[in-house]
Design brief:
elongated; two-stranded antiparallel ribbon; five-stranded parallel sheet
Amino acid sequence: MMKILVVDDDVVSRVLLTEQLQSFGHEVMVADDGGEAWSIYVANKPQLVITDWMMPKVDGLELSRMIRAENRVFYTYIIFLTILRGKGSFLEAMNAGADDVITKPFDSEQLSARLRVAERILGLQHEIRQLHGILPICSYCKRIREDDDTWISVEQYISRKTQTSFSHGICPDCYGTQVKNAVGPFHPTENNP
């Protein structure tokens, strides 16, 4: 199941597409122009946007460009649904950031097949993000292996990736187990009140 934003100024097309997507088991949000769609997109972060090309205010091309310019961590798959045909229209949509183009009126089987492709691509991107999230860390010293096979401290690694700086202290648990054991018990004397 995907979270899908449907954008179309034609009520009949929007309702038919919404019903079809819901019958496939997807969660659907709707907008009747690109401006409304942008607000819904920013608030809800859908995985897939199916947009009409020609709409008042903000059209599908501009909406697609806005989505691509946002540079999200999670990829949004964009399908144009349009009456426009031909290689020129297809290339214009791709140049605006579309992943696919389906001509109106849509065919349910073709739509279903295109959604499976979108799910595969989004699934692969999710796997890639997970693999990038795995840190090769030494079980003993907790240093992290870099791409060039050098080993650096966790602090250095995080500082490089996030521009974060660290200040060090000792938590109560470590103080109780590490510092007391290393220093030994404290015995006050006349010289050390």
